[in-house]
Design brief:
single chain, 473 residues, alpha/beta, 2 domains
């Protein structure tokens, strides 16, 4: 969510729930049969959800907590019958607090929509301790990753609270968080009887450009379902679709996946690749000029032509731009090839790279550590085949394009592009046609989570069997 530069808002994911949204959510919960004896809101803020719950579930006991004492004072004025505590979620002894509460529980609310990297950027300590990650019941420790949503951590905690208990969870969250939490829970057989996601207009309610909804999870004594029904809004009577876990694979549309299941392969039949990774566009990506090339620093330079290849980036593929005048310097033909030989075989390029060695050495990724000078990744014989089928990994367009040489040189891609090396122009055009046809499109759409930052990956594309597609189409 956007925070408008407000450090306090970023640090605590402090986007207070509008009263009308809280009331609509609790009314929906009652309508679908949620009837709690206790309502628990672990990050209650100013009390919008607790006030709504008090009006909807009139006999339920109410427990709320928040790190902000001022907010607790406001909530106490709104919901005097609630038991309210000033507490840091990550420090509060929840097992003790929950132990005597009557069941079924409803864990309700709007946990912070903030990421660990967002907290790190402002020096906030409002995050779970990393050493606690290993204590989860069989779920992979997300706190070991470079970034994750605080709400994701909290939702996993909520599921742990319901292990062996009766109750439900109903929280506002990003749809990406809902999917990650449910997928992890399904993989370990967490006791989920039913899961539903009701979409909301996050821009209207929170001025946030994210896909979000009300996630409702009902607990059970055993795992009864590995699907989550997705509803367009609170008024929808029937789900639009359902995402879920099929044979250990997270899929975005279970019904569409099952209709085309024979196209799925667990084996890697087709070697989809990512484009070249160099992490220094100012030096490695250039534009042609009448006197040679111009790099991203505005320098007019000369290079040996044999090391320069036409370049297409994700935006080029997505927008149908195929001869942009942009090129990439490719100093290695294979990963980890010794670049020192360039001093003899391509001395002009070697001098250029040496002059910019500090920029290349400043690349942050650990993959370049202890590798030859000016190393790149995602390069091999497949990079230089004359014909390829390619697709942007960043844009929400499922369009495959046959790409041939430009001015007699094979095209290379940046690392946000996925491509398949082909033996000929005919093969490239045939594969592109197959992939753009309705059957392959439906199958791939069933697997793609379009809310992901990079929805189309080589790993996902490798799940479609081109061999089966060829023989059944």
């Amino acid at each position: 969510m956007t925070a408008g530069g407000d450090t306090q808002t970023i640090a605590y994911g402090d986007f207070q729930t509008p009263d009308d949204l809280a009331r609509a959510a609790t009314a929906l919960l009652r309508q679908i049969g949620i009837a709690p004896a206790t309502v628990i809101e672990p990050s209650c803020g100013k009390g919008a959800f607790l006030a709504a719950a008090a009006g909807t579930f009139r006999t339920a006991r109410l427990l709320g907590a928040d790190i902000n004492a001022g907010y607790i004072d406001i909530a106490r004025g709104r919901v005097p019958q609630a038991e309210l505590r000033v507490a840091d979620f990550f420090e509060m002894p929840w097992a003790e607090a929950l132990g005597s509460l009557p069941q079924p529980w409803l864990i309700l609310g709007n946990p912070p929509w903030v990421t660990v990297s967002g907290l790190g950027a402002i020096g906030s300590a409002n995050a779970p301790a990393r050493q606690n990650a290993e204590g989860w019941r069989g779920i992979d420790a997300i706190t070991g990753r470079s970034n994750f949503d605080i709400s994701e951590w909290m939702l996993r905690e909520y599921l742990g609270w319901l292990d062996g208990q009766r109750g439900a969870i109903a929280v506002l969250c990003k749809t990406m968080v809902a999917r990650k939490v449910l997928t992890a829970a399904w993989k370990i057989g967490a006791p989920i009887a039913r899961a539903r996601l009701y979409r909301i207009d996050a821009a209207a309610h929170f001025d946030a450009a994210v896909d979000a909804g009300l996630l409702v999870i009902e607990a059970a004594g055993r795992a009864d379902a590995t699907v989550c029904e997705v509803f367009d809004d609170f008024a929808a009577e029937r789900p639009r679709s359902a995402f879920g876990l099929v044979d250990g694979l997270a899929v975005a549309d279970v019904a569409a996946f099952m209709r085309n299941r024979e196209l799925f392969t667990a084996d890697i039949e087709d070697r989809w690749r990512s484009g070249i990774k160099h992490d220094c566009s100012a030096v490695m990506e250039l534009r042609r000029s009448k006197d040679g090339f111009v790099n991203g620093l505005g320098e007019q330079i000369a290079l040996e032509p044999k090391l320069v290849f036409p370049l297409l980036k994700s935006a080029d593929l997505a927008n149908g731009r195929f001869d942009t005048g942009r090129v990439m310097l490719v100093p290695q033909m294979t990963v980890c090839e010794d670049t020192a030989q360039l001093a003899q075989t391509a001395p002009v390029t070697w001098e250029y790279l040496t002059r910019h060695a500090p920029r290349m050495a400043a690349r942050k990724s650990s993959i370049y550590r202890d590798k030859p000078a000016f190393s790149i990744f995602g390069v091999g014989s497949y990079s230089f085949t004359p014909w390829k089928v390619a697709i942007s990994g960043l844009y929400k367009r499922l369009t495959f394009t046959a790409i041939g040489p430009i001015e007699g040189r094979p095209v290379v891609f940046d690392d946000t592009v996925s491509f398949l090396a082909c033996a000929s122009e005919d093969e490239a055009r045939h594969i592109a046609d197959l992939l753009n046809a309705p059957r392959a499109q439906e199958f791939l759409n069933a697997m793609i989570f379009w809310t992901d930052k990079r929805p189309i990956t080589t790993g996902l594309l490798r799940r479609l069997s081109l061999k089966t597609l060829r023989t059944t189409t």
